[in-house]
């Protein structure tokens, strides 16, 4: 009896050990929780939703500016709406990375990895990657770029020199709205774009979520809670060339972009494309997040080809933003929660003006 009892305990322990050491998937299937996090934020803070609605009402002005630029181009009257002047980006954003633990899922997170990741995200926004030339022909006329560069700050909030990369002891939970790490360690949200690098984003023991970010909101900036949270295992050379663009995806959320698969696909929604789904009319609706050539196809419920290569999808070949998405980001950059970041005075104050 004793031997049988001991054998049972041993079997149970071995089973538990097997579960505990089961190999975690390379990344979580639905790896960005921005949809859920922002929806919860708007439920908790209705004033934030009201602010967002007022912000979105101004997108029409941005579209009008684009049309004016197009007309001016025909008469050689250049405009700096999207394209930089004399090689200077239209928008420069000072960034500070807060890194919690330098080994994440076995990958080293150091200055070189972060600088590589930021450089490649800048290339994504500006259409300087090889994949930009291979966007499906259906979207050749609407794929677009934003002339923006994210630069590591070289002056800290006290005016002292900094690398723009701050290392902290290992921690978790910066993907949760009221993270104590974020509240304690943030730099002024009106001067710096704060990026938090952790392995366990939600302090739940899961280390294969990629990232999360919130849309522009002044209350979050006032509280020091505006941010991108990202898993260091997927930074730059720590992952493959395609998946490293998920950082670009999160930066898109920070500038007010929604997932292209938001709301699924519904007949009749095309007539209300500016206020349904991702609120973008030149990104066709998606049946769901899992739509790529190899796993479910690229035709939506209406038989339309989706822009599966879009940075705001979950893509096997990240490649582009669209014109309407660029307009929405330009509008987001003009919001009260973001417009101080790229002001000339702030670029000087954060040391990124040269």
Q: Summed up, what is this model?
A:
The protein is α/β, with parallel strands linked by helices and 354 residues long. It has helices spanning 2-20, 34-44, 46-56, 59-74, 111-125, 180-185, 218-222, 246-254, 323-333, 344-349; strands at 91-100, 103-104, 107-108, 143-144, 148-152, 165-168, 193-198, 211-213, 228-231, 321-322. A hairpin with a 2-residue loop joins strand 2 (103-104) and strand 3.
Layout: helices, strands, pairs:
Blueprint: H1 2-20, H2 34-44, H3 46-56, H4 59-74, E1 91-100, E2 103-104, E3 107-108, H5 111-125, E4 143-144, E5 148-152, E6 165-168, H6 180-185, E7 193-198, E8 211-213, H7 218-222, E9 228-231, H8 246-254, E10 321-322, H9 323-333, H10 344-349
Parallel strand pairs: 1-5, 1-6, 1-7, 7-9
Antiparallel strand pairs: 2-3, 4-10, 8-9
Detailed description of the structure:
By secondary structure, this protein is of the alpha/beta class. Helix 2 (34-44) crosses helix 3 and helix 4 (59-74) crosses helix 9 (323-333). Strands 1, 5, 6, 7, 8 and 9 form a 6-stranded mixed sheet that branches. Strands 2-3 form a two-stranded antiparallel sheet. A hairpin with a 2-residue loop joins strand 2 (103-104) and strand 3 (107-108). The model is unreliable at 1-21 and 78-86 (pLDDT under 50). The protein contains 10 helices and 10 strands.
